[in-house]
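Reply to dn_fold:

You asked what the input looked like. This is it:
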Amino acid sequence: MGLDARVWPLFAPRAIPWSPPASDRYDALLLTSANAVRLAGAHLQHYRALPAYAVGAATAAALKAAGFADVTAGDADASAIAAMIAADGHRSVLHLAGRTVAPMEAGPLQVERITVYEMIRTGDDGLAQRLEPGSVLLIHSARAGELLAQRVGSERRRALHLVAISPAALAACGTGWASAETPDRPDDERMLALAAALCK
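and this is what came back:
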């Protein structure tokens, strides 16, 4: 898109050991992060026969790369894909996830969540001092927003623009930014479109 993109990870993913329950206890598998696919390890293969549901195209692609043939991708949040799972007639769902997850309205589903990874906060890398006035910051979670708010003071905020993946992530960033907005759907393509518009 012609943008000068720079990446500053505020967290690093780390796998958590887990014991796989029997696959025949479930009608479907749910993953809400590609990190869960990458860090679940060899146990993930126990569930390849289940229909798999993913929040987002990146998570769906990771599942397909891991050998899952029946993958359905949602383009909204976990509550939306839970409704999709229920509409498809499933009731018992295994959710492999991170230690911190966004709220999900499960509806009629019986969801068993197993933590397979966690996000570890990285050290302070001088982010605030590296941000150039006029930059657009893309924030992908409420936790990242909270950390950004801690690291960037009010004086620097006035010259920086925010695009956050959700209203919750935006609220966590605090106030005082040059501009702050969210896309109509929580995905990278829409975030980048907003960023590109700000860069014109």
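The longest helix spans residues 188-199.
Hope that clears it up.
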